[in-house]
């Protein structure tokens, strides 16, 4: 099908090519807020599976930090502490920052993910749209996995790495999945209110080139990313995909308000959790009938993972 050619303003084009400039553009909006430490107690789930995966996991959590090159500040990771002693390998999720936000601002989300048995890692780049800093974080994690002196030595399952990002970070996921050297590393992705999106940036983000299952979640009160833009982006994706909005949630709150289903998504596709899969696939996926969500669309029946 012939692609529609869209006109891109020169300042936006320059911003896309140079991530730091784009960060300045997007920061005209208020920066993505960090998740509060007690968000799991304030979020009201609308289904049993959402509630289960919103809850804290069974693993004790530890923190890792290392200097990062090229202006990225630090690499920050939270991981299941048992990783330090056991021989088991753990999946990982690379987080991509929103505008003006650092990985340390996502500590509450990282900790909760690590408690569920997944290594959560990010960096300090607040202008990540090019995908280069995401790729650098993935490369660092793989290097640590091969380093006998690292706590992560042979503890990361390199075949089970996912991507997650909110706002500008949600848009940067598309670049990491389609235009970076390690684009084939990722097994799945979850993007939360990806901004910028839609007709202005669709060609540059190249959603049609995504090849892994991807979940797009927004809020009905999101004033920054038009719903029509998300629908257009979703329509161009050819890989297994899902799109949904949570009622009453704004652009920044979606980072943690949908954490129950984001956690279930990664539990399904990175940890082979058959129960988690029922949130998204089957005759009546829980999320499709959850009264706190609306506008569910999906083509996930071909997604990898147990049923």
Written overview of the protein:
This protein is an alpha/beta fold and 307 residues long. The chain has one domain: Rossmann fold (3-Layer(aba) Sandwich), CATH 3.40.50.1820. The chain has 13 helices and nine strands. The chain has a nine-stranded mixed beta sheet with strand order 1-2-4-3-5-6-7-8-9, with helices on both faces. Helix 1 (10-17) crosses helix 2 and helix 4 (48-54) packs across helix 11 (259-271). Mean pLDDT is 87; it is low at 1-33.
Task: Summarize the structure in short.
It is built from 13 helices and nine strands.
Rg measurement, Å: 18 Å
| CATH fold-level name | Rossmann fold
Residue stretches low in confidence (pLDDT < 50, at least 5 long) are: 1-33
CATH secondary-structure class: Alpha Beta
Give structural attributes.
Rossmann fold; globular; disordered N terminus
What is the strand and helix layout of this fold?
Elements: H1 10-17, H2 19-26, H3 39-42, H4 48-54, E1 61-67, E2 74-80, E3 90-96, H5 107-115, E4 119-123, H6 132-145, E5 156-166, H7 168-178, E6 188-192, H8 202-205, E7 214-219, H9 227-236, E8 241-246, H10 254-257, H11 259-271, H12 274-277, H13 286-289, E9 293-298
Parallel strand pairs: 3-4, 3-5, 5-6, 6-7, 7-8
Antiparallel strand pairs: 1-2, 2-4, 8-9
């Amino acid at each position: 099908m012939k692609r529609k050619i869209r006109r891109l303003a020169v300042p936006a084009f320059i911003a896309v090519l140079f991530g730091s400039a784009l960060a300045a553009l997007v920061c005209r909006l208020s920066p993505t807020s960090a998740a509060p430490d007690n968000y799991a107690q304030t979020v009201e789930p609308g289904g049993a599976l959402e509630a289960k995966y919103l809850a804290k996991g069974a693993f004790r959590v530890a923190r890792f930090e290392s200097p990062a090159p090229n202006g990225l500040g630090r690499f920050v990771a939270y991981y299941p502490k048992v990783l330090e002693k056991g021989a088991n390998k753990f999946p990982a999720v690379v987080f991509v920052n929103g505008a003006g936000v650092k990985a340390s601002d996502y500590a509450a989300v990282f900790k909760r993910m690590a408690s569920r048995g997944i290594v959560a890692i990010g960096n300090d780049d607040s202008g990540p749209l090019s995908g280069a800093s995401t790729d650098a974080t993935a490369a660092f994690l793989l290097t640590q996995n091969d380093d006998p002196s690292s706590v992560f030595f042979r503890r990361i399952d390199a075949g089970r790495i996912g991507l997650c990002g909110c706002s500008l970070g949600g848009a940067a996921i598309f670049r990491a999945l389609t235009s970076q050297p390690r684009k084939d590393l990722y097994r799945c992705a979850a993007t939360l209110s990806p901004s910028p999106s839609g007709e202005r940036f669709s060609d540059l983000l190249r959603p049609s080139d995504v090849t892994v299952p991807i979940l797009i979640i927004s809020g009905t009160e999101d004033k920054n990313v038009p719903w029509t833009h998300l629908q257009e982006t979703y329509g161009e994706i050819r890989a297994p995909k899902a799109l949904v909005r949570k009622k009453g949630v704004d652009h920044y709150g979606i980072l943690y308000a949908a954490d129950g289903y984001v956690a279930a998504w990664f539990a399904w596709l990175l940890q082979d959790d058959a129960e988690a899969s029922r949130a998204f696939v089957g005759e009546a996926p829980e999320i499709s009938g959850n009264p706190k969500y609306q506008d569910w669309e999906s083509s996930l029946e071909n997604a990898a993972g147990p049923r």
